[in-house]
Design a protein that fits this description.
The protein is of the alpha/beta class. It is built from 11 helices and 16 strands. The chain has one domain: Alpha-Beta Barrel (TIM Barrel), CATH 3.20.20. About 35% of the residues lie in helices and about 15% in strands. The chain is globular and about 60 Å long.
């Protein structure tokens, strides 16, 4: 639908060449033949519908999300299933222009919310998500995201859930139920291992630490083992010295006293030219490239093979598609589409210059981590 444009990334290159990294001598030469890779994990945070207040009668009959068409060029689309499908396809199409140090194309972690899962499985309104790309055959991964919504029990109606223990339990159970109904060519779509908890929605009521505890325990009870979320949502067993100020450069495991264990993948929200910066909810392209460069540098200084270094970020299918559709109408290219192109162009330049980078899904990254960090017991585990 859109021409995939090339960004002239002079400002990005300045960040790459001038960033001294996380301490050390300032020598940023990265030898791909002597280092383990920095793994890159990319999420499409599929937003779904807006949700309705509990008891809103409009919710019980609404099929706007299922039926709303896409707008003409130059206009921003409002939430719809069509938008989420074409936006995901567009993100993947953009990613296919890049390759890692092994010549492999990027992989995508696709994590829809409840309305998407329910709609996909519906015989009248659903399907379409695999019309352009067979994401399962191409080894991408699907999971769930913890928007604070729960299923009303009627039609396509999802109400906003309470920010309580019961609200967290209900939203996870409902989303997981509908995700488990989704199949493509006889294969289950949801890989059922990775989730985003929606911590920022519940933390103000439950507190930072307890909100993470409840989210992790509910996800674990449903079979999920990998949390991929904004870094401030991950408090339990965070590597020392970070103090929740930034994403960890390497994977770690949160281990609770009752034996629940969750592998943690930190990100810093969406990369977009519209980010104001200095927040855990988004990154400017310059901030994202600086973080990637610091991750490479930290990897080069660390001889411990148990530390699995990675760079993770998220985009939204609606945000990327809208950025390109607005551009097609003559508007500035400055949102999530710009952010995605900026970071991927910068990563490709580093790969071409010898950086050891590998594109993976969250489950693949977790498998690498577990191979180097087998779990023993809460008594011997130290949060690696």
């Amino acid at each position: 639908m859109f021409d995939i444009i090339k960004i002239t990334a002079a400002s990005i290159l300045i960040v790459i060449t001038s960033c001294g990294g996380a301490g050390g001598s300032g020598n940023n030469t990265i030898r791909a033949d002597t280092l383990e890779p920095v793994y890159v994990v990319i999420m499409n945070h599929v937003e779904g519908d807006i949700g309705f207040p509990e008891g809103d009668p409009v919710c019980l009959t609404s099929t706007i999300y299922q039926t709303l068409p896409l707008p003409d060029a130059g206009s921003a689309a409002t939430p719809s299933y069509s938008l989420d499908v074409v936006g995901n396809d567009l993100i993947y199409e953009i990613l296919l222009n890049y390759a890692d140090s092994r010549g492999q194309k990027p992989k995508l972690f696709i994590e829809p919310t409840g309305e998407w899962w329910q709609t996909y499985a519906d015989q009248m309104y659903g399907g379409k998500a695999f019309n352009k790309y067979n994401y399962l055959a191409l080894e991408n991964e699907f999971g769930i995201q913890g928007h604070a919504i729960y299923y009303s029990g009627n039609s396509f109606c999802w109400y906003r859930s309470l920010h309580t223990e019961q609200g967290i339990r209900k939203k996870f159970q409902d989303m997981h139920y509908f995700a488990e109904q989704a199949f493509h060519n006889g294969l289950k779509v949801n890989n059922g291992k990775t989730y985003t908890g929606g911590w920022k929605l519940e933390k103000d009521v439950l507190g930072d630490v307890y909100a993470e505890y409840v989210i992790d325990h509910e996800a674990y009870a449903l079979g999920y083992r990998v949390a991929f979320e904004d870094h401030d949502a991950h408090v339990e067993d965070e590597p020392s010295g970070i103090n929740n100020s930034r994403p960890s450069y390497y994977v770690y495991r949160a281990v609770y006293d009752d034996g629940v264990q969750i592998i943690k993948i930190d990100m810093n929200g969406t990369i977009t030219g519209q980010c104001e910066g200095n927040t855990s909810r988004c990154e400017t392209p310059e901030e994202a490239v600086a973080r990637f460069n610091k991750t490479l540098h930290a990897r080069s200084l660390d001889a411990d093979s148990r530390n699995i270094y990675f760079f993770a970020f998220a985009e939204h299918s609606n945000g990327v598609w809208n950025d390109y559709n607005l551009l097609a109408g003559g508007n500035p290219f400055e949102g999530e589409g710009f952010g995605l192109k900026s970071i991927m162009d910068a990563i490709q330049i580093l790969v071409n210059n010898g950086a050891n980078v590998k594109f993976v899904t969250p489950m693949e990254l977790a498998a690498v981590f577990e191979a180097e960090n087998p779990f023993d017991s809460p008594e011997t585990e130290v949060g690696r």
